[in-house]
Automatic annotation (TrEMBL), chain A:
It is a multi-pass membrane protein. The chain crosses the membrane at residues 7-27, 65-86, 98-117, 148-165, 196-219, 231-253, 259-283. It holds the Pfam family BPD_transp_2. This is Branched-chain amino acid ABC transporter permease I. Keywords: Amino-acid transport, Cell membrane, Membrane, Transmembrane, Transmembrane helix, Transport. It comes from Haloarcula vallismortis ATCC 29715.
From TrEMBL, chain B:
It is a multi-pass membrane protein. The keyword ATP-binding does not apply. It is found in: Cell membrane. This is Branched-chain amino acid ABC transporter permease II. The lineage of its organism: Archaea, Methanobacteriati, Methanobacteriota, Stenosarchaea group, Halobacteria. Keywords: Cell membrane, Membrane, Transmembrane, Transmembrane helix. One of its GO terms (cellular component) is plasma membrane.
From TrEMBL, chain C:
This is Probable branched-chain amino acid transport ATP-binding protein LivG. Residues 19-260 form the ABC transporter domain. InterPro entries: AAA+_ATPase, ABC_AA/LPS_Transport, ABC_transporter-like_ATP-bd, ABC_transporter-like_CS, BCA_ABC_TP_C, P-loop_NTPase. The keyword Cell cycle does not apply. PANTHER family: CONSERVED COMPONENT OF ABC TRANSPORTER FOR NATURAL AMINO ACIDS, CONSERVED COMPONENT OF ABC TRANSPORTER FOR NATURAL AMINO ACIDS-RELATED. The keyword Transport applies. GO terms for molecular function: ATP binding; ATP hydrolysis activity. Keywords: Amino-acid transport, ATP-binding, Nucleotide-binding, Transport. It comes from Haloarcula vallismortis ATCC 29715. It comes from the Archaea. It holds the Pfam family BCA_ABC_TP_C. One of its GO terms (cellular component) is plasma membrane. Probable component of a branched-chain amino-acid transport system.
Length: 295, 354, 261
C-alpha cells in the first residue's frame, strides 16, 4: 500500500517536472541549446506569484482562486524574461561552439540566482493555500487537494503548449525553424523572433509551474539548477524533441524520486536519479522514446 | 569577415604590429623554462622579502590556487576539447579527504595530502571511463551532475560533517600553504608545458580537433582522454587537499562549488584556453578583479562573475593569448606565400612553382 | 568468387594479399548496404572502387577500417583476421585512411599534424611522452617540401586553403607509411592542376615505396588513369572486377551506371 501511495505522490509531482522539461526540450529541439538558466525561470515564476499575492493581499496566504489568478502574471512576465534572454544574450552565441552556449546560459543562471539572493535573501519561502479539508482520501490513498490542482495545472499547461505548437501560425513557424532555419527564413519567417518566442513560451510554462511549486513545495533563489538537471534527465529519458516522451519521463522521474525518498531517504533522490541518467546515457543515448539510431 | 572587423584590425596593426607580437610569442616559447624559473623565483622571494601571513599573502595564495584549477580544467577542457562543468568534484574529494584524514584519523598533513591526491585520481579514473564516452551537451551536463551528486553525498554522510561541514583548527602556517600552492602551480605549469611539446600533447589536441580522425590514425582516444582527465583530477585534487586546511573550514557548498567551476572556466577562456600561459594569466587577472569587487562591493562578486562569463564568451572566445597568437600567425602565413585563400589561386601558385 | 568477371592474377589462397575481405555483408534495418563482397588487394597495387551513388562503397570502407563491424564475413589485413578489432588497432596494424571530406587537425600547426602521423614509438603514453627527435623533425620538413608546403610548418593547419589541406593529409599518410592506404574520393573538390600534382604524388609513392592504395573515386578519367585494377559495386553487390579496359567494356557496369537492372 505504501508503494502505491508513493507512486501516486510521484505522479502528482512528476507532472510538474514534466511540464518544466517540456519547455527545456522545446528550446533544445528548436534552437539546439541547453538552457542552463531554465531552472531560474521556475524560480522567478514562483517568486512572481509569491510577490503578487504578498503585495496584493499583504500575506502569502491565499485562497485557491486568488492563487490561480496570480499564475497568468507569472506566465506573462516569464515570457518576457525568456524572450529577452534569447534576444540579448543567447542569439549572440547560436551556431558557435556548444560549450560557449552552455557557458552563456550558465553565466545567466548564476547572475539571476545571485541577484535573487540580493533581492530576496537565501531563505526558502512558500505560498499557503487554505482549504476546508487539505486532502481527500481515495480508496485508502491520501491525495492533497493542492497537489491535485497543481497536477491538473501542469497537464493543462503542457497540453496548451502542444496545441499551440500544432495549431497556431506561430507554432508552425517554430516547428519550421526547428527543422530548417534557412528554409524557414526563405519563406519569410523571422527566425530570430521565432527563436525568442520559443524561449519565451518555454520560460512562461516554467514560470507557471514555479507558482505551483511555491505552494506544494517551496521556493529559494538557488533551487534552479536542480530543476534544470531534472529537466535534462527527463528529456534524455524521453528523447529530445518528444513531448509525450517528456511527459512520461517526468511522471517516471517523479515516481522514482518519491519511491526513493519513501523507502530510503529524500536525501538520496538526486544521487539515484542521476545514476539512472548516467546508465541510460551510456546504454541508450537516444532516449527511450527518441528516434532510433540513424545510419 | 565584416569590413568593420578589418578596419579595426588595421588600426590594431599600427599600434601593435603582428611582427612584434610574433617575436614576443616566439621568445616566450623559446625561453619557456627560463621564464617559468624566473616566475617561480620571484614568487618564492616574496615571503623572504618580508611578505607576512595576512591579507596579501592570502590573496596571492588564492591566485596560485585558481591558476592550478584553471590550468587543470584546461588540460581536458582546452587541450582535449572536453569542457567539464564538474572539475570541482575532484577538488571537493581532495578537500574532504585531508579534512577527514587529519581530523578523524590523526594522520600527518603530508601523508593525508598525498592520499587525498591518490583518492581524487582514482575517482577521476572511475568517472572518466563513464562520462568521457559522452560528447557536447551530454558530457557537460553529466559532469555537472557528478559535481551535484558528490555535493549531495557530502551533505548526507556523517563523516563529512553533513551540511554544517568540518572546522579544522590544527593547520600548518600560512607560509607553508603559500609555498605549497606555488610549488604545485610551478610543477603543473612545467608538466603541461612539457606535455604540450610531446606527441602525447599533440594527441590531446588532435582529439579536440577531430576525434574520429585521431581514431582512424590509430590512437585509442579513450585511453588518452582518460589519462588527461586523471591528470586534471590529480592537480585539482591536490589543490582541494591543501585548501581545506588552508581555509580551516570545509562544507558541501565550499568544497563542491559550482560557481567556482564556472569561474575557473572563465579564467581559462579569458586568458586563452588550449595554451599553457593563458589559463594562468586569466586566473591571475580575473581573481584580482574579483578580489577588488569583494573588497569594495561585498556580495556582488558572483553577480559580476555571471556577467564576466557572458562578456568573455560573447566578446572574446579565444582569450588574450589565443587572440594574440592567432593575430601573430597571420604574419607567418602571409610571409610564406600562403596568400592562396582560394583553390584557384592555390593551384596556379603550385603549378607555377614547378 | 562466383560473381567475378575476371579473377585477379594470383592464387586463391589470398594470404599474400595485403587486404582481403571474405563475404562482407552489412545491413541497416531492412536495407543491405554491402552484400557478400569479396575483395583482394596485393602489395604495390592501386585498386579503384567505383559504383553509382548509394552502391555501398563508403560502407564497405567503414567495414574494412573498423568504423563499422560487418554483420557477416571477415576482413583480413596481411593475412590476419581484423574483423572484430577496434578501429584504432586496425589503423595501428598498417591501414591508413583519407576521408572524403579532407580531415586534418585545424587548430594545430602543420608540423604537429605530421608528427602525429609518424608511427615510430607506437602509441602508448610513455613513448609519446618524449619530445620528437631531430630525425623526425627533418622528415617533416622533407615531406612538406615534397608536397610544396615548405615554410608553412608552423602555420595553423586550418588557415590553409582546401587544396593545401588535402596535400597535408596526403603528406600525413606518407609520414605514417601504411601497409595499405584507403582513399575516399581523393579527386573530389580539387581543381585540375592540383589534381595533376596529386596523381603524380600517388604514382610516385606507388612506384618508389611500393605503396598499396585502394581508392573510391567518381572521377572516371582519374580512376581509369591511375588504377591497375577496378572493382565495381552496385546495390551493395560486387558486379565486376578487372582492368580499366575490361571495366569500360563490361555490359553490367554500363547498365548499373545507366540505372538498368
Amino acid at each position: 500500500m505504501a508503494a502505491t501511495q508513493f507512486v501516486v505522490n510521484g505522479l502528482l509531482v512528476g507532472a510538474l517536472f514534466a511540464a518544466v522539461a517540456v519547455g527545456f526540450a522545446l528550446i533544445w529541439g528548436v534552437v539546439d541549446i541547453i538552457n542552463l538558466a531554465h531552472g531560474e525561470m521556475v524560480m522567478l515564476g514562483g517568486y512572481t506569484s509569491y510577490w503578487v499575492l504578498k503585495l496584493g493581499t499583504g500575506t502569502a496566504e491565499s485562497s485557491v482562486l486568488l492563487f490561480l489568478a496570480s499564475i497568468p502574471v507569472a506566465i506573462g512576465l516569464l515570457f518576457v524574461v525568456g524572450y529577452l534572454l534569447q534576444r540579448t544574450l543567447v542569439s549572440r552565441v547560436i551556431g558557435t561552439d556548444v560549450f560557449l552556449t552552455l557557458l552563456v546560459t550558465f553565466g545567466a543562471s548564476i547572475a539571476i540566482q545571485q541577484l535573487a539572493i540580493r533581492a530576496w535573501t537565501a531563505n526558502p519561502r512558500s505560498i499557503q493555500v487554505r482549504f476546508a479539508e487539505q486532502s481527500m482520501a481515495l480508496g485508502g490513498i491520501v491525495v492533497p487537494k493542492m497537489k491535485l490542482i497543481a497536477f491538473a495545472g501542469a497537464l493543462a499547461l503542457t497540453v496548451a503548449m502542444y496545441v499551440f505548437l500544432q495549431k497556431t501560425r506561430t507554432g508552425r513557424a517554430i516547428r519550421a525553424v526547428s527543422q530548417n532555419p534557412e528554409a524557414a527564413a526563405l519563406v519569410g519567417i523571422d527566425v530570430e523572433h521565432t527563436r525568442a518566442v520559443t524561449f519565451g513560451v518555454s520560460s512562461a510554462i516554467a514560470g507557471g509551474i514555479g507558482a505551483f511549486i511555491a505552494v506544494i513545495l517551496n521556493i529559494q533563489p538557488q533551487m534552479g539548477l536542480i530543476y534544470t538537471l531534472k529537466s535534462f534527465i527527463i528529456v534524455v529519458f524521453g528523447g529530445v524533441g518528444s513531448i509525450p516522451g517528456a511527459l512520461i519521463g517526468g511522471l517516471l522521474l517523479g515516481s522514482v524520486e518519491e519511491l526513493v525518498s519513501g523507502f530510503i531517504s529524500s536525501q538520496w533522490t538526486l544521487a539515484v536519479s542521476f545514476s539512472l541518467l548516467i546508465v541510460l546515457l551510456v546504454v541508450k543515448p537516444k532516449g527511450l522514446f527518441g528516434e532510433g539510431a540513424e545510419q | 569577415m565584416s569590413t568593420t572587423e578589418e578596419e579595426s584590425d588595421g588600426a590594431l596593426r599600427s599600434i601593435l604590429p603582428p611582427k612584434q607580437v610574433d617575436w614576443f610569442i616566439n621568445v616566450c616559447d623559446h625561453y619557456g623554462w627560463a621564464l617559468l624559473l624566473v616566475g617561480a623565483l620571484v614568487g618564492a622571494s616574496f615571503p623572504v622579502l618580508g611578505l607576512e601571513g595576512g591579507y596579501y599573502m592570502t590573496v596571492l595564495t588564492e591566485m596560485y590556487l585558481f591558476a592550478i584549477l584553471a590550468l587543470s580544467w584546461d588540460i581536458v577542457g582546452g587541450q582535449t576539447g572536453y569542457p567539464s562543468f564538474g572539475n570541482m568534484a575532484f577538488f571537493g574529494i581532495g578537500a574532504y579527504a585531508t579534512a577527514i584524514l587529519t581530523k578523524d584519523f590523526a594522520l600527518a598533513f603530508p601523508t593525508a595530502f598525498l592520499l587525498a591526491g591518490l583518492l581524487a585520481v582514482s575517482f577521476a579514473g572511475l568517472i572518466g571511463i563513464i562520462v568521457l564516452r559522452l560528447r557536447g551537451h551530454y558530457f557537460a551536463i553529466a559532469t555537472l551532475g557528478v559535481l551535484l551528486v558528490a555535493q549531495q553525498v557530502s551533505r548526507i554522510l556523517d563523516i563529512t560533517g553533513g551540511s554544517s561541514g568540518k572546522i579544522l583548527l590544527e593547520t600548518p602556517t600560512a607560509e607553508t600553504f603559500y609555498y605549497l600552492f606555488l610549488g604545485l602551480l610551478v610543477v603543473e605549469i612545467g608538466l603541461v608545458y612539457y606535455i604540450s611539446g610531446t606527441r602525447f600533447g599533440f594527441v590531446l589536441n588532435a582529439i579536440r580537433d577531430d576525434e574520429e580522425k585521431a581514431t582512424a590514425m590509430g590512437f585509442n582516444t579513450t585511453y588518452y582522454k582518460t589519462a588527461a582527465w586523471m591528470l586534471a583530477g590529480l592537480f585539482t585534487g591536490f589543490a582541494g587537499a591543501a585548501y581545506s586546511l588552508f581555509n580551516t573550514f570545509i562544507d558541501p557548498q565550499t568544497a563542491y562549488n559550482g560557481a567556482w567551476n564556472v569561474e575557473l572556466i572563465a579564467m581559462a577562456l579569458l586568458g586563452g584556453s588550449g595554451t599553457v600561459a593563458g589559463p594562468v594569466l586569466g586566473a591571475f587577472g580575473l581573481h584580482t578583479i574579483i578580489e577588488l569587487v569583494e573588497t569594495y562591493a561585498v556580495g556582488w562578486q558572483l553577480v559580476l562573475l555571471g556577467g564576466a562569463v557572458i562578456v568573455t564568451v560573447i566578446g572574446f572566445p579565444n582569450g588574450v593569448v589565443g587572440t594574440l597568437s592567432e593575430y601573430a600567425s597571420q604574419m607567418d602565413y602571409y610571409k610564406h606565400g600562403g596568400m592562396a585563400a582560394t583553390d584557384t589561386d592555390d593551384g596556379a601558385e603550385v603549378s607555377a612553382d614547378e | 568468387m562466383s560473381k567475378a568477371t575476371s579473377s585477379p592474377a594470383t592464387d586463391a589462397s589470398g594470404d599474400r594479399a595485403v587486404l582481403r575481405t571474405d563475404g562482407v555483408t552489412k545491413r541497416f534495418g531492412g536495407l543491405t548496404a554491402v552484400d557478400d563482397v569479396d575483395i583482394e588487394i596485393h602489395r604495390g597495387e592501386i585498386v579503384g572502387l567505383i559504383g553509382p551513388n548509394g552502391a555501398g562503397k563508403s560502407t564497405l570502407f567503414n567495414c574494412i577500417t573498423g568504423t563499422l563491424t560487418p554483420d557477416e564475413g571477415r576482413v583480413y589485413l596481411q593475412g590476419e583476421d581484423v574483423t572484430d578489432w577496434p578501429e584504432h588497432k586496425i589503423a595501428r596494424a598498417g591501414l591508413g585512411r583519407m576521408f572524403q571530406e579532407t580531415r586534418i587537425f585545424g587548430d594545430m600547426t602543420v608540423r604537429k599534424n605530421l608528427l602525429l602521423a609518424a608511427q615510430e614509438g607506437g602509441a602508448d603514453v610513455s613513448s609519446l611522452m618524449r619530445r620528437p627527435d631531430s630525425s623526425l623533425l627533418a622528415r617533416t620538413d622533407e615531406l612538406l617540401d615534397y608536397v610544396d608546403l615548405g615554410g608553412l610548418a608552423e602555420t595553423r593547419a586550418g588557415r590553409m586553403s582546401f587544396g593545401q589541406q588535402k596535400l597535408l593529409e596526403f603528406a600525413m599518410e606518407l609520414m605514417s607509411e601504411p601497409e595499405i592506404l584507403l582513399m575516399d574520393e581523393p579527386a573530389g573538390g580539387i581543381n585540375p592542376s592540383m589534381l595533376g600534382n596529386l596523381i603524380e604524388y600517388i604514382r610516385n609513392a606507388n612506384e618508389e615505396q611500393e605503396s598499396t592504395i585502394f581508392l573510391i573515386e567518381h572521377n572516371m578519367d582519374f580512376v581509369m588513369d591511375i588504377a591497375d585494377r577496378i572493382y565495381v559495386l552496385a546495390h551493395g553487390e560486387r558486379i565486376a572486377n578487372g582492368t580499366p579496359e575490361e571495366i569500360q567494356n563490361d555490359q553490367r557496369v554500363l547498365d548499373a551506371y545507366l540505372g538498368r537492372e
